[in-house]
Design a protein that fits this description.
Strands 1-10-9-6-7 form a five-stranded antiparallel β-sheet. A five-stranded antiparallel β-sheet has the order 2-3-4-5-8, with helices on one face. The chain has 252 residues and is of the alpha+beta class. 33% of the residues lie in helices and 25% in strands. It has seven helices and ten strands.
Length: 252
């Protein structure tokens, strides 16, 4: 499939919507958290992924990632990661353990695969209890936490490993992170396609994302997510340089 076919919005619009509806989970909306997720592919199928699940003990698991490439292979790789996530969260305790288990699975699959698997991904995995206590692990763009009481945005620095790459042990970058969401706070998880969108002059959206979060995070998560994507469309002239994925989590 060439780029012209892959970028044909009319040919693939219906297929894209059907695939998204079948693969990606419904947004969580309960007494503890409310989620608004958005995903938009620059090509017919992309490598961005997100997941939101509740394990057998009532803990919440969130994940967001970006597989290398912009083709069917990257899409299939990201879907494989989602399947592994849904399996391991009920077997293992921490995001780091889940990430390492997925990496181990991929390394074993590489050894037995008929052809080389060269895909890799950034993947942030988060686990939260019902009180807003989060543990996270995985190499991915930093999160931004909007603190409702203080009316300010805080950057949550991510750490960990990429998925699908054999990496040497690095203890300084292999630790889990922790933070807490208070009631009314909003957590922004996103892929790099959002802040790397460019306008006609070639300027990146970049810091405008932080400004948006600082000034427009009040209100229902669905409305906030829609407004952010409207601003991105206005900024970029509705032209996508990369897949864009957002998962906006509100603590109730």
């Amino acid at each position: 499939m060439d780029d012209k076919e892959n970028r044909n919005p009319e040919m693939f619009a219906n297929l894209n919507d059907e695939i998204k509806g079948l693969i990606f989970p419904r947004d969580i909306k309960d007494e503890n958290y409310e989620v608004a997720s958005r995903i938009r592919h620059a090509y017919s199928l992309g490598g961005d992924l997100y997941s939101q699940l509740i394990d057998k003990n009532g803990n919440y698991w969130f994940a967001i990632g970006d597989a290398s490439g912009h083709d069917l292979n990257s899409h299939l790789f990201s879907m494989m990661l989602m399947v592994q996530l849904s399996y391991y969260i009920n077997l293992l305790e921490t995001p780091r353990e889940v990430s390492n288990a997925i990496n181990h699975y991929l390394q074993q699959k590489r050894k037995s695969a008929a052809s080389d698997i060269t895909s890799y991904a950034s993947l942030a995995i988060l686990k939260a209890d019902q009180e807003g206590n989060f543990t996270h692990y995985g190499q991915h763009p930093n999160f931004i936490l909007f603190q409702s009481e203080e009316k300010k945005a805080e950057i949550i620095v991510t750490s960990g490993r990429f998925i699908g790459l054999e990496m040497e042990e690095n203890r300084l970058n292999d630790l889990e992170g922790h933070f807490r969401m208070k009631k009314g706070d909003k957590l922004y998880l996103f892929t790099d396609g959002i802040f790397e969108q460019r306008n006609e002059e070639g300027k990146y959206f970049g810091y405008s994302l932080y400004q948006f979060i600082s000034h427009h995070s009040e209100g229902i998560v669905e409305n906030v997510a829609d407004r952010l994507f409207q601003e991105l469309d206005t900024f970029s002239g509705n032209k996508l340089d990369d897949d864009m994925t957002l998962m906006l989590i509100s603590r109730k």
